[in-house]
Amino acid sequence: MTEESISQDLPTLESRSVFRILDAAANRCREGLRIIEDYVRFHRNEESLSSDLKQLRHDFRNYWKELDPEQLLQNRDTAGDIGTAISTAAENVRASLLDVVAANCKRVEESLRTLEEYSKLISTTAARGFEQLRYRFYGFEQELLLENQRKARIGQASVYFLLTEKTCVLNWQTTAEQAITLGVDVIQLREKELDDRELLARARWLRDATRHSSTLLIINDRPDIALLCDADGVHVGQEELCYGDVRKLLGPQKLIGISTHNMEQAREAVAAGADYVGAGPTFLSETKSFSEFAGLEFLRQMAAEISIPVFAIGGIGQENVEEVAQAGISRIAVCQAISQSQQMGRIIQEMKNILSSGNNREENRV
Ligand SMILES: Cc1ncc(COP(=O)(O)OP(=O)(O)O)c(N)n1
Ligand SMILES: Cc1nc(C(=O)O)sc1CCOP(=O)(O)O
Ligand SMILES: [Mg+2]
């Protein structure tokens, strides 16, 4: 039997069945890919993943053409398909967008396996092609679903603490331990003058201190240190490595935050796939000096447009967090409001209460 004409040796009835199976599997695969692509495009707004999925759909079409689409169509018999009347209760209910995506990931994988197996009767090229697409799609599924888990974790955060030793009134370890115990949602190790070994040792200490807490650990600037200490992610500014390169280093499970100072940078960060953004500087900061301030107006624009978590930053504390909340932002990143505080627990709770007030909550935005 030649590679491309195996089907001519099949009994007619079997050939017809094979074409029906392949036609149904191809439709299931195409439809599942489209559903996932719509989610990435319209909900996640991620250009890179969207174009990767579009390329996979394009490659799928090339292997599908190896199967004699005319034959598939001629042998379609939807009226005679007993499967159209069979469905389970679970198939008709989805609890969340993530459930829709997860269910369609499985639909795509199963249909690619069906195409791979039955194509072996018609075209070895197509069979091998569907096999490779299946392996590629497993990577997409991991990135899609793990990214959702990652985004869910940062999506719950409201108070994010930047830990810099020289700003602490207590020693840095005590400050960190108190902040974690008193409920900061994220702690970021932000040190610019330590040598790499001391920075890594400090990062590992913080990993141990946060491991059994609900506090996420982020490393500022350094994806290498974040990787070595198994941090939850890294935060990079406009001058550090770009999102795509950091994602190559950290893989799909780690959080990547990006600093933004204007709407163009914010849109770029969302399009790249950032898990969250910092937005500032808002007010005069004792920790870092700036020649210009994005201020509250930038926060109002961010609150109105940006779909991923936005952490306002820059000179924010108990005395002005209300203004941040009124601008529509429900998350803050602070350094000295916590590191200089003599009543850390009260400050953290008060800021959380103000940030959780009604008018600035993201879910209340229409
Ligand atoms: C949460 C958060 N937002 C913004 C920044 C600032 O990062 P960057 O612009 O890279 O400046 P440095 O902190 O590196 O001086 C941040 N660190 N965290
Ligand atoms: C590190 C940093 N980045 C900012 C930005 O706007 O990107 S503001 C800032 C300083 C944050 O410290 P504090 O809360 O003590 O002002
Ligand atoms: Mg930086």
From TrEMBL:
Q: Tell me which residues bind 2-[(2R,5Z)-2-carboxy-4-methylthiazol-5(2H)-ylidene]ethyl phosphate.
A: 285-287, 315
A GO term, aspect molecular function: thiamine-phosphate diphosphorylase activity
Tell me which Pfam families the record gives: ThiD2 (PF17792), TMP-TENI (PF02581)
Residue sites binding 4-amino-2-methyl-5-(diphosphooxymethyl)pyrimidine per the record: 188-192, 220, 259, 288
The Thiamine phosphate synthase/TenI domain covers which part of the protein? 160-338
Entry-linked InterPro entries: Aldolase_TIM, ThiamineP_synth_sf, ThiamineP_synth_TenI, ThiD2, TMP_synthase, TMP_synthase_cyanobac_bac
User: What UniProt keywords are attached to this protein's entry?
Assistant: Magnesium, Metal-binding, Thiamine biosynthesis, Transferase
Catalysed reaction equations from the record: 2-(2-carboxy-4-methylthiazol-5-yl)ethyl phosphate + 4-amino-2-methyl-5-(diphosphooxymethyl)pyrimidine + 2 H(+) = thiamine phosphate + CO2 + diphosphate; 4-methyl-5-(2-phosphooxyethyl)-thiazole + 4-amino-2-methyl-5-(diphosphooxymethyl)pyrimidine + H(+) = thiamine phosphate + diphosphate; 2-[(2R,5Z)-2-carboxy-4-methylthiazol-5(2H)-ylidene]ethyl phosphate + 4-amino-2-methyl-5-(diphosphooxymethyl)pyrimidine + 2 H(+) = thiamine phosphate + CO2 + diphosphate
Q: Where does Mg(2+) bind?
A: 221, 240
Q: Name one GO biological process term.
A: thiamine biosynthetic process
Signal as a keyword?
Answer: no
Q: Name one GO cellular component term.
A: cytoplasm
Pathway membership: Cofactor biosynthesis; thiamine diphosphate biosynthesis; thiamine phosphate from 4-amino-2-methyl-5-diphosphomethylpyrimidine and 4-methyl-5-(2-phosphoethyl)-thiazole: step 1/1
User: According to its UniProt record, which cofactors does this protein need?
Assistant: Mg(2+)
EC number, as in UniProt: 2.5.1.3
Q: How and how many cofactors are bound, per the record note?
A: Binds 1 Mg(2+) ion per subunit.
Record carries keyword Magnesium: yes
Annotated ThiD2 domain residues: 20-142
Function in brief = Condenses 4-methyl-5-(beta-hydroxyethyl)thiazole monophosphate (THZ-P) and 2-methyl-4-amino-5-hydroxymethyl pyrimidine pyrophosphate (HMP-PP) to form thiamine monophosphate (TMP).
Family indicated by similarity: Belongs to the thiamine-phosphate synthase family.
- Could you tell me what this protein is called? Thiamine-phosphate synthase
The record lists the organism as: Rubinisphaera italica
